[in-house]
Amino acid sequence: MEKLSTVGHLINGKKIEDTQRTQAVYNPSNGIVSKQVALASKQTVEEAISAAQAAFPAWKNTPPLRRARVMFKFKELLEQHTEEIAQLIGEEHGKILHDAKGELQRGIEVVEYACGAPELLKGDYTKNVGPDIDSWSDFVPLGVVAGITPFNFPTMVPLWMIPMALVCGNTFVLKPSERDPSSTMFIGELMCQAGLPNGVFNIVNGDKEAVDTLLTDSRVQAVSFVGSTPIAEYIYQTAAAYGKRCQALGGAKNHAIVMPDADLDNVVNSLLGAAFGSSGERCMALSVAVTVGKDIGDQLISNLSNAMAKLKCGPYANNSNDFGPLITQAHKDKVVAHITSAEQQGATIIVDGRNISVSGFEEGFYVGATLIDHVKPDMDSYKAEIFGPVLQVIRVETMADALQLINNHEYGNGTCIYTRDGEAARYFCDNVMVGMVGVNVPLPVPVAYHSFGGWKRSLFGDLHVYGQDGIRFYTRRKTITQRWPSSSLREGAQFSMPNL
Ligand code: NAD
């Protein structure tokens, strides 16, 4: 039997294999193990931190324009290698190639934003804050920073962090998801080829041992995390206990309110993509539709189930498929168990994806698009983040009931209202306790020059990722107040607070 290749680490510009512990990486489209990934030891992670620490002084003093030039080159390389990157994402994540390219494009947009580093890092300057006194504030890099990323966007989420951190003058250690590490490794190599000095950017693959080393090593100044809520909470608490700055983005349960005046064709079309695209493995997936009023619920269910009959679920490499498999067999079992629990607790399964079989790919981790009606807020399937191709429908009488439902949920990542009524939409935007809100826009993911983040238990920390918040997260402010008195103007000592 052919020996499987192992995805190692990228430290100080070199690929390293620390293969004492490894884990299987699957091709979820056919259920076959395609590679092994090395799980870094504490010592390997410490080597990566040392490399980043050694590279920091020179990188910090590299002019922002030169740091930005590396990002210009990196963007060019990402575009040149789009096909290979999409292929690697598809092979290990399972998302269809068209969707994999979409993910990469959203990541490239953050690289483009980071190319504006000289402008973004200019700081503020005021001449004459007092007689002959000038003051300015700078954005100073933190030092070695770390990122820990989830499986569902193996290139986009790392790209939310790395370009921002690097153009700000930090050096970086990334711990990608161990479930689909190859595309992340590939873009890391491209970043080094783009002209980064050795040690500025490093990747360690691994599990809890690697993460805990990053969280507790005193040389790491800040941690960005994206993943599930229980781990996000753990990361935030541990990082804080070790005196680190931390932003930890967690899970989600995103509701779409469908008002009685909504354009139903638009609702159905956009719900299909937002609920089932990428197999529902998106933190912004719309997984609950809340219908308001008497008639719209039945109509929505009927139109949705007709449209769902045409959806195609299958392997990543066939671009005519709408969505692919789930990431692992264990995750498939979890999603199926959620559907079964909804049924057992009294909901109605309208379209059932539990027993789907994809011809020629019978061992793949597929669950078909599933529609569940008459879901109630106390059901386990409603409370949990399912993270699969499952859309649940809850019927309420008024918009106030819908808002209350959303505001009572522990998660607050994304939401959307479908309506033709501007006043209702405005009221919704003002009163919903969610970080990213759409009005007739199903997946309101902020563009690269805004910032991404949820509320409540969808984000631990103060700042969102990328955009202006990204600059703030990866720098600390230093404010300098300066006077050059002429020798003839010497003053005596002052004992009260200076009042300029
Ligand atoms: P996960 O929490 O299982 O893993 C995320 C990262 O944490 C991985 O790198 C993993 O190796 C590491 N990790 C896992 N268990 C750990 C432990 N016990 N101790 C330390 N580190 C650990 O998440 P996932 O399954 O890879 O990704 C899906 C989740 O990510 C979903 O909940 C999804 O909503 C969330 N997500 C959120 C956002 C957002 O912006 N809010 C974006 C993408 C994904």
Automatic annotation (TrEMBL):
Q: Which GO terms describe its biological process?
A: L-valine catabolic process; thymine catabolic process
Q: Which GO terms describe its molecular function?
A: methylmalonate-semialdehyde dehydrogenase (acylating, NAD) activity
Q: Does the keyword Oxidoreductase apply?
A: yes
What EC numbers are recorded for this enzyme?
A: 1.2.1.27
Aldehyde dehydrogenase domain ranges (all copies): 17-480
Classification via Gene3D superfamilies: Aldehyde Dehydrogenase, Chain A, domain 1, Aldehyde Dehydrogenase, Chain A, domain 2
Keyword list, A-Z: NAD, Oxidoreductase
Which Pfam families does UniProt cross-reference here? Aldedh (PF00171)
Per the record, the domain of life is Bacteria
EC supergroup of this enzyme: oxidoreductase
PROSITE patterns reported for this sequence:
ALDEHYDE_DEHYDR_CYS
The name this protein goes by in its record: methylmalonate-semialdehyde dehydrogenase (CoA acylating)
Taxonomic lineage per UniProt? Bacteria, Pseudomonadati, Pseudomonadota, Gammaproteobacteria, Moraxellales
